[in-house]
Design brief:
Elements: E1 6-12, E2 20-25, E3 29-34, H1 40-58, H2 62-68, E4 78-80, E5 85-88, H3 101-105, H4 107-118, E6 120-121, H5 135-145, E7 150-162, H6 166-174, E8 179-182, E9 185-188, E10 200-211, H7 217-230, E11 234-239, E12 245-249, E13 252-253, E14 260-261, E15 286-290, H8 292-295, H9 318-330, H10 343-351, E16 353-360, E17 367-374, H11 377-387, H12 391-398, E18 401-405, E19 421-422, H13 428-432, H14 436-445, H15 452-474, H16 491-505, E20 511-515, H17 523-538, E21 542-546, H18 550-555, E22 558-563, E23 572-577, H19 579-584, H20 588-593, E24 612-618, E25 626-631, E26 635-639, H21 646-663, E27 674-676, E28 683-687, H22 700-704, H23 706-715, H24 718-723, E29 747-752, E30 755-761, H25 772-775, H26 784-788, H27 792-798, H28 803-814, H29 831-843, E31 851-856, H30 864-879, E32 883-887, H31 891-894, E33 899-904, E34 913-918, H32 920-923, H33 930-939
Parallel strand pairs: 3-21, 3-22, 5-20, 20-21, 26-32, 26-33, 28-31, 31-32
Antiparallel strand pairs: 1-2, 1-4, 6-19, 7-10, 7-11, 8-9, 8-10, 11-12, 13-14, 15-18, 16-17, 22-23, 24-25, 24-27, 29-30, 33-34
Helix pairs in contact: 4-15, 5-7, 9-10, 11-12, 14-15, 15-16, 27-28, 28-29
């Protein structure tokens, strides 16, 4: 029986799909395209991927399935020819500070294995190569080097530590040993013997004294065993005549000083394991340390007037009573300026102290005893930060701290032992700090420097590492370093890392489903991405991509176009076939691909209002101390290759500064020197693509606030006034008007133990969410439930004469979302739709004409037609005098901007400079900018 050539889907009805049948060729690169909201993701993710997942989970036993949580059966009649499915979505990556590029791609795991098996250890005291011996080798060496000499064999117990060690001596004598060597001198153990507890000591126990010759071999063997057991795998041999010690160890040990490392395991090099993590920063590489400048910003103010910021001004509290006592002890007043307070008193105030003292009271002539037991302001803040349950107290404590590189490991995250294992003079941290390109060339040359034995052990590991590095290079991530934390990655970078990891796993016969992998990718890197997908296809996988990018559609073997409209007007397959077939069809996508329709370049650019914001000396992440001017009243576009520093400049530096200035927000901007021109704007709005609501109870009507207006309107109808209904009666989230059987959800969840939960329409309200009495109230013949079922287009006409409601609905319609219903669950909206609802909700607010809008890649998930609609809306904003700043790679958006700021040249270390800025025509003339090269083609 020959293998099936198609994945066949029959009767798909998820979300808005209109009961469609589709045949998708296997082992080909297939692109699904169409308007935003037309049903692309419903077909790819909610039908094909969901069914693949469900079939996989069905293979587990019923017992195992109850822990996995059942998966819904997608609404489809049947799917044939389905392979195992892997989806690579734009889910944001792990936000944990412990997750790095190296750990996600598993390259770091292979490096740890490589270092634990082949690296040479060096002493951190002397830099000598560490040695380790077997018991047999130790015996041979002693017989050879100390022949016919009198020696003592000792086991080291204490190495340069303070203490009186009385219990230790008792324990040694109980074990039957009679002599110890303390600080270089051999003594007999006496009863009650102890040392000076404030000095550091070295203590070894004498195991045996003997003359080395052939007859003593058996005895020597026993002694070595006992000594290694007592001294924790280290023993020491002393020639009785010249007293010079020599060390031998089963573990790695410095031959001169006797310090030992435990034998290396992969964990030794992991900053996420207690075995390898630096103990000071717990393997994070950064610590929060108190900045004295923030605790006492001005030392000319007195303690009473709030000179110590965390304490504030003097009040009747225990802390101030303690401070009063300290003041009496050191002879100053709380009203003195802080700079006049004696040094030792400030030491006690900041770092704490305990003491008792007496003060003679002049008036009564008696002495009074006082006691200071004060933990110190600094220790107090640190304790609150480490141990407090409350986030607001933690945030309060953090205000006095700076994030600094850990002083012990110097930001390298590992213990010093781990950093002294080298392969050809590089330790693991040196490799993690190289960018991928540098790392690749190091691994090409490393073979020549390894010994034969090392090569035998390492050959497989090296092969794995090289292929994984190559995949990162293939998807255009050559500028990343392995120690870069994953929370600092952009969405596009994170998705391409997952893609590289998948290509690295070399699976065959799998169906990969990708959700717009070209997001955050500059045109320059697009070809690399397409080549990677073709490579996945050529090894024998089926690749299904939801995508709007023209290059991707051109390179596809097969294209499905879903439409013709969005929402209720979509959900059908309007054309299928190759790129050439597609162009001849009469669909929106074909119109844009064949250039019958296009987004026109404006005849003239806006002049702006002559004012601007000037940001100087921005140096966060990879920015090279850049100064940028943002002209106001224009549409500004920030461009540049992936990883060049666009997000750092805008989202991490500019936005937090504006936000803190206007709304006193708490997020700290990345380092910059100064900013000018903040007085020219009075509102800043950041619109991103995060979902608008996480629960089925959130919907476009509640999010934009239009539902409150509609409820007030219903409460004002004559019938509602007679019954005394308030707006709350018409909410499905509170008791009163909602149907109590389904608590206003419209559906009931029936739990089926180890089968997936089933959602059934509530039998009491038939899915209308409200009780009978509430539904009796009608406005223009429609109940509140009918209104929630209207599309935005219908509702705009229906509420035409109510300006408050009409204005909000009109803006949702203007951003091209006329097809969604008012009550559609937010969880079913696509990323592009969610972003446009946010946009609409901001647009419906009265703008001031001095508002600064920031949009990060707003074209994600948008079809050419959607981009046209979106740009019309943004142009309206800019025409009113507002400033619209967009971070974007899409040339249709870039060519419409009034002012472009291009950052580059490359990503990572080679980026972070402003290459050129000006109108699109000016930027296109730039010689070296990648954006200029592509923009030039687009403008011509």
């Amino acid at each position: 029986m020959k293998e099936q050539e198609y994945i066949e889907v029959y009767g798909a009805r998820a979300h808005n799909l209109k009961n469609i049948d589709v045949k998708i060729p296997r082992e080909k690169l297939v692109v699904i395209t169409g308007l935003s909201g037309s049903g692309k993701s419903s077909l790819a993710f909610d039908t094909i991927y969901a069914e693949g997942q469900r079939r996989y989970i069905e293979t587990f036993s019923a017992y195992a399935r109850q822990f996995l949580g059942g998966l819904e059966r997608p609404d489809v009649d049947k799917i044939d020819g389905l392979s195992p499915v892997i989806s690579i979505e734009q889910k944001t990556t792990n936000k944990s500070p412990r997750s790095t590029v190296g750990t996600i791609t598993e390259i770091y795991d292979f490096l740890r294995l490589l270092f634990s098996r082949t690296a040479d250890a060096y002493s951190y005291n002397t830099g000598e190569k560490m040695v380790s011996y077997s018991d047999e080798q130790i015996k041979e060496l002693i017989l050879k080097d100390f022949d016919e000499k009198r020696i003592a064999i000792l086991a080291p117990l204490i190495k340069s530590r303070k203490g009186h060690y009385r219990e230790l001596f008792e324990q040694i004598s109980k074990q039957g040993f009679v002599r110890v060597r303390v600080d270089g001198e051999i003594r007999e153990i006496e009863k009650g013997m102890k040392l000076d507890r404030y000095k550091t000591h070295d203590i070894e126990v004498v195991i045996d004294r003997l003359v080395v010759n052939d007859t003593a071999e058996k005895r020597l063997e026993e002694t070595i065993k006992t000594a290694l057991y007592t001294g924790d795998n280290i023993l020491m041999v002393i020639d009785v005549d010249d007293e010079k010690p020599r060390y031998f160890s089963r573990e790695l040990m410095c031959p001169t000083t006797g310090i030992a490392y435990p034998n290396p395991e992969p964990n030794t090099f992991s900053f996420n394991s207690p075995k390898g993590a630096c103990t000071h920063c717990n393997g994070l590489g950064i610590t929060n340390e108190i900045n004295h400048q923030k605790v006492i910003p001005d030392d000319s103010i007195s303690i009473k007037n709030g000179g110590i910021v965390p304490l504030g001004e003097q009040k009747n509290s225990w802390i101030f009573k303690q401070l009063q006592t300290i003041a009496e002890r050191y002879g100053f007043k709380l009203t003195d300026p802080i700079k006049n307070i004696p040094k030792e008193a400030m030491e006690v105030i900041l770092h704490g102290g305990k003491e008792k003292f007496e003060i003679q009271s002049k008036a009564a002539g008696v002495t009074r005893n006082y006691e200071i037991d004060f933990e110190g302001i600094i220790a107090f803040i640190e304790n609150q930060y480490k141990n407090s349950e409350s986030t607001s107290i933690k945030r309060w404590a953090k205000d006095f701290m700076d994030e600094v590189t850990c002083s012990v490991c110097d930001g390298k995250r590992l213990k010093k032992e781990a950093l002294h294992f080298n392969i050809t003079d590089k330790n693991i941290s040196d490799l993690a700090q190289m960018d991928v390109l540098e790392l690749a060339s190091w691994f090409q040359k490393v073979d020549k420097k390894l010994s034969e034995k090392q090569l035998t052990i390492a050959s497989e590991i090296l092969k794995e590492i090289r292929t994984r590095i190559q995949f990162l290079l293939d998807v255009g991530l050559d500028y990343l370093t392995l120690d870069r934390t994953s929370k600092s990655l952009s969405g596009g970078e994170a998705q391409r890392i997952r893609l590289a990891t998948q290509i690295g796993s070399q699976l065959v016969g799998v169906l990969y489903i990708l959700d717009e992998p070209s997001i955050g990718l500059h045109q320059r890197d697009n070809q690399k991405l397409i080549d990677s997908l073709i490579k996945l296809r050529d090894v024998g996988n089926s690749v299904l991509v939801v995508e709007h990018d023209e290059d991707m559609i051109k390179n596809a073997d097969f294209v499905l176009d879903i439409g013709p409209g969005a929402g209720r007007h979509g959900g059908e397959i309007v054309s299928e076939g190759t790129f050439e077939d597609l162009k001849s069809h009469d669909t929106l996508t074909a119109d844009y691909l064949s250039k019958r329709k296009e987004i026109k370049v404006p005849n003239k650019r806006r002049e702006g209002n002559g004012k601007s914001i000037l940001l100087k000396g921005a140096s966060g992440n990879n920015l090279k101390n850049v100064s940028v001017e943002f002209p106001l009243g224009k549409m500004i576009c920030v461009t540049g290759v992936s990883g060049s520093g666009k997000s750092t400049l805008i989202n991490e530096t500019l936005y937090p500064i504006l936000n803190a200035h206007i709304y006193r927000a708490v997020k700290k901007p990345m380092p910059y020197k100064k900013i000018e021109g903040l007085e020219h704007i009075d509102k800043v709005i950041d619109i991103d693509q995060s979902p608008i609501g996480r629960t089925p109870r959130s919907n476009p009507a509640t999010y934009t606030g239009v539902f409150s207006e509609i409820r007030s309107l219903f409460a004002k109808t004559p019938e509602a006034s007679i019954r005394g209904y308030k707006p709350g009666r018409f909410s499905f989230n509170v008791k009163g008007g909602r149907c109590e059987t389904c608590q206003g959800g419209g559906v009931r969840v029936i739990e089926m133990n180890f089968l997936p939960d089933v959602h059934v329409e509530c039998e009491t309200c038939q899915g209308k969410r409200f009780n009978r009495e509430t539904l009796e109230i009608r406005y223009k013949g429609k109940s509140i439930s009918d209104v929630l079922d209207m599309t935005i287009n219908e509702a705009t006409e229906f509420f035409e004469h109510i300006p408050k409601i009409h204005r909000k609905l009109k803006t949702i319609k203007d951003v091209g979302l006329g097809y969604i219903t008012l009550g559609q669950q937010s969880t079913t909206l696509s990323g592009g739709e969610a972003q446009r609802i946010k946009l609409a909700s901001e647009l419906s607010k009265r703008d001031t004409g001095n508002t600064f809008y920031i949009l990060d890649e707003p074209t994600t998930g948008l079809h050419f037609e959607d981009i046209r609609v979106l740009m019309e809306v943004l142009n309206k904003l800019a025409n009113k005098g507002n400033t619209v700043l967009i971070i974007e790679h899409n040339l249709d958006v870039i060519k419409l901007a009034d002012y472009i700021i291009d950052i580059g040249m490359e990503g990572g270390k080679k980026g972070g400079k402003v290459l050129t800025s000006g109108t699109p025509e000016e930027v296109a003339k730039h010689k070296t900018s990648y954006t200029a090269k592509f923009l030039k083609k687009e403008l011509n």
